[in-house]
Amino acid sequence: MSKYILGHRAQTRTRSIRYTLLVAVLLILVAVLQVTLFSRFRLFGAVPDLMICTVLCLAFFCGKYVGAVSGIGAGFLIEAIGSQGITLLPICYMLLGYIMGHYARTVLPRSYPAYLPYLAVTLVFRAAITFLYACMNYANINLPQILLQSVLPELAVTAIAGCILYFPLMLFCGWLEKKIF
Questions:
Q1: DSSP alpha helices (H): ranges in 33-84?
Q2: Domains of the chain, with CATH numbers?
Q3: Strand ranges inside the chain, DSSP E
Q4: What is the SS3 assignment for the chain?
Q5: Per residue of the chain (181 residues), what is the pLDDT tens digit?
Q6: How far apart are CA 174 and CA 163, in angstroms?
C-alpha cells in the first residue's frame, strides 16, 4: 500500500512541476513578445500590457492560486526585462491574479461574455497603475496630458490585446488541464 501512495505522490509532484514549467514558458514567451515585437509596432502610440492579460486569463481559467503565482512571476519578469528596478508591479499583479481567479471560479461560469467584465476591471486597475507611475516620474503633473498620452492609449491597446488573447489562452489552459491532469 505504501508503494502505491509513494507512486501517487511522485505522479502528483511530476504533474505539478510540468504544469509550473509550462506556465513559466508561457509567461516568458509573452514577456519576450511584449518587449520585442509589440514595442516596435505601437498601436495608438502605446505598448499593450500582454502580461496582465495573460495573468487574467490564467486566473480566469486555472484559478486563484495559479493566477497569484503567475501574477507575481509575471510582475518580476516584466520588471527584470524592463530594467526599471523593483516596484510594486509584482504585488499588484499577484493581487489581481488572486482576486480575479477567486471570483471567476465562484461567481461566474467561464465564457467570453463573463470574461469581459473581468477584463474591464483589469483595465481600470492597469490604468490606475500607469497613472500612478506617470505621476511619480513627471515633475509637472498635467492630468489631461497624462491621460491622453499615456493612460488612454495603453488602455485601448491592452483592451484589444485582452480580447484577442482570450481565445489562444483558453485553448492553452484547456490543453494544460487535459494534458497534465
A1: 38-40, 50-62, 64-82
A2: 2-180 (1.10.1760)
A3: none
A4: CHHHHHHHHHHHHHHHHHHHHHHHHHHHHHHHHHHHHHHHCCECCECCCHHHHHHHHHHHHHCHHHHHHHHHHHHHHHHHHHCCCCCCHHHHHHHHHHHHHHHHHHCCCCCHHHHHHHHHHHHHHHHHHHHHHHHHHCCCCCHHHHHHHHHHHHHHHHHHHHHHHHHHHHHHHHHHHHHHC
A5: 444 555 666 667 777 788 888 889 999 999 988 888 877 777 777 888 899 999 999 999 988 899 999 999 998 888 888 766 667 888 989 999 999 988 888 766 778 888 899 999 999 988 888 888 777 777 677 777 777 777 888 889 999 999 999 999 999 988 888 877 6
A6: 18
Cell numbers linked to 154? 495603453
Q: Which residue has the cell 485582452?
A: 162
**Angle, alpha carbons 98-29-58 (nearest 5°):** 25
Residue 90 grid cell? 509584482
What nine digits make up the cell of 162? 485582452
Burial of 178 (0-12, 13-18, 19+ CB in 10 A): exposed
- Retrieve residue 108's grid coordinates: 461566474
Dist CA 131 CA 152 (whole Å): 10
What does the block give as the cell for 76? 518580476
